[in-house]
Design goal:
Blueprint lengths: L17 E6 L8 H10 L3 E6 L1 H4 L4 H8 L12 H6 L8 E7 L1 H8 L6 H9 L5 E5 L1 E2 H4 L2 H12 L3 E2 L3 E3 L2 E3 L3 H12 L8 E6 L4 E2 L5 E2 L6 H12 L3 E6 L10 E3 L3 H9 L6 E4 L6 E3 L17 E3 L3 H7 L4 E8 L4 H13 L5 E6 L11 E8 L4 E8 H15 L2
Parallel strand pairs: 1-2, 1-3, 3-4, 4-6, 9-12, 9-14, 12-13, 14-17, 17-18
Antiparallel strand pairs: 5-8, 7-8, 10-11, 15-16, 18-19, 19-20
Helix pairs in contact: 1-3, 1-9, 5-8, 10-14
The protein binds flavin mononucleotide.
Length: 402
């Protein structure tokens, strides 16, 4: 088998993992090429297995081309089901059936194996993690017998993803959601038992009832960190400011500095707290009610806000990681300012980034950061997507906690 090279690597989270992708006779089979490629972008080796009805919708060549591996569309003298999912030297770390027809769900629930997909599942059942992603018309999905079969399989430890209900159909969820579920299932749980608080995004400070002051933070860095902690087994609370982005982790949405402050201070029992939010440094002295007239000039008086991270670290036993954004300063000055902030606080680590540079900081998919500890040890994480930066930040945090 050769490993197919792939452009646009997203993370290393599935490196060394082999996934059997079972494809059945749903029209959503056309999505499986994209799904296979996304799994590969996180490092997985993908082996496609198809039912004969799936082949009426998508040609196996498409999956052979996408994965770089032969497609199993019948069980032959090579006993593919045993080499993929048998007890000894099996290739497969997880079986993902996406899309799964009502027919295949019910066959698996009754232990029937008369297709390549159901035969691989029968062989690995109870030993290999199985994720099933149903796709069908809503009327089929609501069939009480199908629902009973889904429940039966859930009771046996099979993970089902909830379909996206649109146009009277139970459709496949977004590809990203399927990939995240696979990663979560396979990821090492090195933060399990830890309670983690992450703040992200900007806050807004009202000028009047329709205008406000804010900043350009998207919240992506904090969201990626929160999701990385979740994948690695932590119990995560994300306090998320005014942003269009959202996350699947438990989220408290806030708008103003005061709301951010209150949400953070009601979570002082965390073991680890990471403050990535670009909280407003000022609030408007006496915001007006209604809409200020634009007929004449106005002076706005800005009052400095408290530093939430300072107050938090004085009132919590958490391992505290702060973020410090600077604009247009050279690297040595960035590090000096970040270390000054760290040493004058109860924080344990500080993550410094220069948000004035292209492809870094606010609104960017990528970042370059420096992590500094109390002994002035500096870790440099060069420019990479924020998912990979998060992975590495957690690896560094792990060195400091037990
Ligand atoms: C174009 C087309 C689309 C279909 N879409 C679905 C579907 O989304 N979900 C489903 O459960 N069955 C769907 N079916 C019916 C299944 O293909 C049929 O139940 C078949 O027996 C499934 O076999 P398999 O589970 O072995 O793939 C579709 C059939 C056709 C021809």
């Amino acid at each position: 088998m050769h490993r197919k090279s792939i452009k646009g690597s997203k993370s290393n989270k599935l490196i060394g993992k082999s996934i059997v992708l079972g494809i059945t006779g749903s029209i959503a089979a056309v999505e499986s090429v994209k799904l296979a490629r996304e799994l590969m972008r996180h490092g997985a080796e993908v082996y496609a297995v198809m039912t004969s009805d799936a082949k009426k919708i998508l040609h196996p060549y498409a999956l052979e081309f996408a994965t770089g591996n032969p497609v199993v569309d019948e069980i032959t003298g090579k006993i593919e089901h045993v080499s993929y999912a048998g007890d000894h030297d099996r290739k497969c770390d997880l079986i993902l059936i996406a899309p799964s027809t009502a027919n295949t769900i019910s066959k698996i629930a009754y232990g029937i194996d008369d297709t390549p997909v159901t035969t691989v599942v029968s062989t690995g059942f109870g030993k290999i993690p199985i994720i099933i992603v149903p796709a069908m018309h809503s009327s089929m999905y609501k069939n009480p017998i199908i629902l009973e079969n889904i429940d039966k399989l859930k009771n046996h430890g099979v993970l089902f993803l909830t379909p996206k209900f649109e146009e009277n159909k139970a459709k496949l969820p977004d590809i990203d959601e399927i990939v995240q579920a696979v990663i979560r299932k396979l990821h090492v749980k090195d933060f399990s038992g830890k309670k983690v608080l992450v703040t992200a995004g900007p806050t807004i400070e009202k000028i009047d009832d329709v205008r406000f002051i804010t900043n350009n933070s998207s919240g992506l860095m904090g969201i990626k960190l929160a999701e990385e902690f979740d994948m690695r087994g932590a119990e995560v609370t994300l306090v998320l400011g005014h942003t269009k982005l959202e996350s699947y982790v438990k989220t408290i949405s806030v708008e103003s500095f005061d709301e951010m402050h209150d949400a953070v201070m009601s979570n002082t029992d965390a073991d680890i707290a990471v403050f990535t939010a670009a909280t407003s440094d000022f609030h408007v002295d006496q915001p007006c009610s209604g809409k200020i007239s634009s007929d004449s000039s106005k002076t706005i008086n800005l009052i400095p806000n408290k530093k939430i991270v300072q107050e938090y670290s004085s009132n919590s036993k958490a391992f505290v990681v702060g973020f410090k954004a600077e604009y247009g300063v050279p690297e040595d000055e960035l590090l000096r300012r970040a270390y000054d902030r760290l040493s004058s606080s109860n924080m344990n680590l500080i993550v410094a980034n220069e948000v004035g540079k292209e492809k870094r900081g606010f609104q960017s998919e990528t970042n370059e950061v420096f992590i500094i500890d109390k002994t002035k040890k500096v870790y440099h994480l060069p420019l990479e997507n924020k998912e990979k930066i998060s992975e590495k930040i957690l690896d560094i945090i792990k060195k400091y906690i037990n």
